[in-house]
């Protein structure tokens, strides 16, 4: 409903309050059934949960008051695993072992994957349920999403982890299906698109998934290793190289504390470059030598970063294309061919995921659509989810997936 969409935009502008009145579906109408469903989105870099309370779905905050939790686990011999932000802060410091839950799920140690994912889920969802006053966690239905390139074994690990965290008989839904469910609820795309072939381009931290979905079923999918991590690595490389040139060859990437500071900084830089063509970077006391402290002061251009990202894509033998736009175009054509669908049969091309904030990625989808069908076609079918919603779609769609069941 249009009212749902308006309230959701107000919800984002208010900072994502968990007040049910500001959540999706929070109209004046009431429902006799106080059904609670927890939707869980385990991304490559973060965990995000949404709770459907009656007819209202909202993103739930973790114990730090954040709308998502970094999905990292830090292991140190003789100590309990450290989760979330504390683990992420050690990602480039070493020598301790910091792994993303996604990497663990992709590994050979099944039990380690179950334990890591369960730890993360339990840490987030227990607080979430308590904040909502929903009672015991086992009283809440749940839907866990999985990436479209996950194997059956990886899906089973996620289900086992959810059960270990206290969720009872969780359902599973593929991520692009969840994104479309939420987009229909918010009228970002028409309800009629459910019966049509739709493309979901989900640009995450480490992977971009391009999927064709029809009747809430994934018909074809292609995954490429591009996303937010590639952009952040490029930004770090540019800043470190500029610093080295001006400071007699000092290598910030050889200093683990300096490297961690760079990675912490570039998240904000990437967000700024989504709105500006140039960003000034000021990092005082980034390192020191025998003469005293050193400071990093640089200006970064979006065009330069885009060129470097494209060059890295071109050099990567695992990617087919001379840049991001080529990869996006190739992946789109591959899934359309696999699903025996032409571009003009598409109900929508929905663009979601945290990294779609960057014009390097979102504009590549638009460019591909123009090449496939022209400017008018692109305007008609491409829907780029804006604001914080780009990262909410999968979790919210998961919480809504049981409607009508």
From TrEMBL:
Instruction: Answer yes or no on keyword ATP-binding.
Output: yes
- GO MF term (any one): ATP-dependent protein folding chaperone
Keyword vocabulary terms for this entry? ATP-binding, Nucleotide-binding
Does Nucleotide-binding show up as a keyword for this record?
A: yes
Among InterPro entries, the record links this protein to: ATPase_NBD (IPR043129), Hsp_70_fam (IPR013126)
Q: Which Pfam families match?
A: HSP70
Recorded family membership: Belongs to the heat shock protein 70 family.
Q: What is this protein called?
A: Uncharacterized protein
Please give the organism: Triparma laevis f. inornata
Write the lineage as a comma-separated list.
Eukaryota, Sar, Stramenopiles, Ochrophyta, Bolidophyceae
């Amino acid at each position: 409903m249009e009212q749902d969409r308006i309230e959701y935009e107000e919800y984002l502008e208010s900072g994502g309050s968990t007040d049910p009145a500001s959540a999706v579906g929070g109209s004046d109408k009431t429902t006799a059934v106080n059904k609670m469903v927890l939707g869980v989105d385990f991304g490559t870099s973060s965990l995000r949960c949404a709770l459907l309370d009656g007819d209202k779905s909202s993103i739930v905050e973790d114990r730090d008051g954040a709308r998502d939790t970094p999905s990292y686990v830090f292991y140190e011999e003789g100590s309990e695993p450290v989760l979330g932000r504390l683990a992420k802060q050690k990602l480039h410091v070493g020598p301790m072992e910091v792994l993303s839950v996604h990497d663990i799920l992709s590994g050979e140690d099944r039990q380690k994957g179950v334990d890591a994912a369960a730890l993360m889920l339990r840490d987030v969802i227990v607080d979430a349920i308590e904040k909502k006053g929903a009672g015991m966690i086992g009283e809440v239905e749940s839907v866990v999403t999985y990436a479209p390139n996950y194997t059956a074994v990886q899906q089973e690990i996620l289900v086992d982890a959810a059960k270990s965290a206290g969720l009872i008989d969780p359902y599973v839904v593929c991520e692009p299906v969840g994104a479309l469910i939420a987009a229909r609820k918010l009228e970002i795309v028409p309800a009629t698109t459910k019966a049509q072939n739709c493309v979901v381009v989900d640009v995450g931290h480490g992977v971009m998934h391009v999927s064709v979905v029809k009747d809430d079923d994934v018909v074809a999918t292609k995954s490429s290793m591009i996303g937010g991590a590639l952009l952040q690595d490029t930004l770090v490389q540019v800043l470190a190289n500029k610093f080295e040139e001006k400071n007699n060859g000092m290598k910030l990437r050889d200093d683990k504390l300096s490297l961690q500071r760079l990675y912490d900084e570039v998240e904000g830089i990437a967000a700024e470059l989504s709105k500006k063509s140039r960003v000034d970077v000021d990092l005082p006391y980034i390192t020191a030598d025998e003469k005293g402290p050193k400071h990093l002061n640089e200006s970064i251009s979006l065009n330069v970063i885009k060129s470097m990202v494209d060059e890295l894509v071109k050099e990567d033998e695992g990617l087919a294309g001379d840049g991001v736009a080529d990869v996006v175009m190739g992946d789109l054509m591959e899934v359309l061919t696999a699903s025996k669908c032409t571009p003009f049969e598409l109900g929508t091309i929905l663009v979601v995921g945290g990294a779609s904030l960057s014009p390097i990625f979102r504009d590549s989808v638009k460019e591909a659509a123009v090449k496939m069908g022209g400017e008018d076609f692109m305007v008609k079918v491409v829907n780029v989810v804006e604001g914080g919603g780009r990262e909410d779609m999968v979790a919210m769609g998961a919480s809504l997936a049981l409607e009508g069941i």
